[in-house]
């Protein structure tokens, strides 16, 4: 059987989280679930951005969004954590450093 012929023109690759990035995010997510703070998540891989959304309940707006935008890596940093209202909580090129803004909230939630 012949392989399908790709559609002519530019192929648009999706931005996705790498396995190591996802491990860091899911590790943090698991700690918040264990603390009873977070209940659900969603992942979107789009043309320009990959988004990990965190929900307190399934049917509401995300509490936080962790985004990866490779086009911004030389400018503002490719990773960003956004709050519920869209405010930027932390931005940078090191995902571990960017996620620390949420880890501080976990420490307060456990106390």
Automatic annotation (TrEMBL):
Pfam families: DUF2794
Domain of life (superkingdom): Bacteria
InterPro entries linked to this entry: DUF2794
Name of protein: DUF2794 domain-containing protein
Naturally occurring in which organism (per UniProt): Pseudooctadecabacter jejudonensis
